[in-house]
Each structure stands twice: as structure tokens, then as C-alpha cells.
Amino acid sequence: MEANFNTEIKAGMETNHTLDISDRLYKIILAVIALVVVYIIGQMMYDFKALPQNYPREIYVSGEGKAYAKPDIAIINFGVTAESAKSQDAVNKSNEKMNAVIKAIKDLGVEDKDIKTTSYNLYPTYGSDRAVDGYGGGGSIMPMYYPVQSNKIIGYRLDQQVEVKVRNLDNINQIIDKVTSAGANNVSSPQFTVDDIESVREEARLKAIEQAKEKAEKLAKQSGLKIDRLMNISEGYNYAYGLGGASVAKESMPSSPAPQIEPGQSEITISVNLTYRIK
Description:
Elements: H1 2-50, E1 58-69, E2 73-84, H2 87-107, E3 115-137, E4 140-166, H3 172-182, E5 186-187, E6 191-193, H4 197-223, E7 227-240, E8 242-243, E9 248-249, E10 266-278
Antiparallel strand pairs: 1-10, 2-4, 2-5, 2-6, 3-4, 5-9, 6-8, 7-10
Helix pairs in contact: 2-3
């Protein structure tokens, strides 16, 4: 009897121990599953919030505005070129001519702040050799000569350019005549512009924005949407300079008067792009 009783107790202890381990493993599995489910649900909610809502959210419109102004200043470039066998002689000749040109400009009322050197280039010039070629004819060879570029330096050349801002447009013809007489080798086409260009741009910009806003309001009304607020704006700019005639060289008009040049009218175009949030 005693032996049987002990056996029953041990069997009961083993059964309880087995049930306890199984219950623990079951709870762990449930906890892991619950965590996985919570993670998946959270990820789905995050992805859903990241998706764009309420299409269309934004509309994009553009507008263009133009403003016109009569130029009040002219930009002219004058050039002086001098050549000599020695570099220093070329520099001296060119500087002498350019000093005379600048003095002529200043004598006509142009201030120092409106005269700017834009180019000063000294470089060597090379000569050419005669290469001999020939052909046979009747037992004789007739020599043929043609020029070939040589690496031999035969002199130096200095090119100078100055940019002049002319504020009194009535002086343009006189300035061109004086500087060519003083030694300027060429005169570029005058570019006519407006000194206070920003005020003209402001006028064109306001027209462009107004046009874009009207377009946005029409689109929203026709589509049944409502404009919430302006999100972004970008701007493009184009300025058509008034141009004079082509470049002229001193040799082409040694005793003729300076040409009559009219400034005309300058056109400034501003384009804007507006982005609106839609309710």
C-alpha cells in the first residue's frame, strides 16, 4: 500500500509540471501574435496617413505681364587696337589712344562711374612662311608658293574695350563722333535700357500675378472647388533691349557724321507660376 501511494504522488507531480510548461508556452505565443498584429495595424495607419487626401489638393496657374518703358540710358562699347614689333610699344600706342578716347568721353559730361574697362588683352602676332610646291610638266618643275602659318613671333597686339553708360541720350551721336576721331577703332551697337529697371519690372509683375489669380478663381469656380491658400510662387523674367545699328569702324566713316540712333521702346515681360491649396 505504501509503495502504490508514492507512485501516485509522483505521477501527479509530473502531470502538473507538464501542464504548467504548456500553459506558459501558449501565453508566449499569444503575446508574440498580439505584438505582430499591433505592429501591422500601426504600419497600415502610418501608410494611410501618408497618402494624399482629398484629390485634387493643389492647382497650378500661370500669368504673364508686360510693361513698356522709354529707355533713359544707353550702353556703348568702344574698342582700341594697336600693333607693334615690341610689346611695350603696342601697350604705349594703345594706352595713348584709349586715354584720348576716355578724355573725349569725359569732356562730353560722362562721369567716371559710368566708364568701365571690360577687356584688356595683349597677345603676340605670328608671321607666315612661303612653302614651295611643284609639279612636273615637259621635264620641268614649276614652283608653287602658298602661305603657311609660322611659329615665329613678328609683333604684339593690344586690344582694349571700355563700356560707357550714356545718361544724356542727346549726346550719343556726338560721343560716337568724338571717340572715333580720338582713336577708337570700333564702336558697338548701343544697348538702350532703363536706369530704374526694377520699377518697370514691378509693373509687369503685378499684371502677371493679377492674371494668374483671375485664372485660379475661374478654375476653382468652374470645378466647384474652393481656394484655401497660396502655397508657392515662382517668377520668370525677360527683357528686350532696344538696340541701335550695327558695329562701325573708324575707317568706314572717316569724315562722315555720326549716325542718327533712336532708342525706341523697351519691353519687359514677367511670368509667374502660382500654386494654390484647394479645399
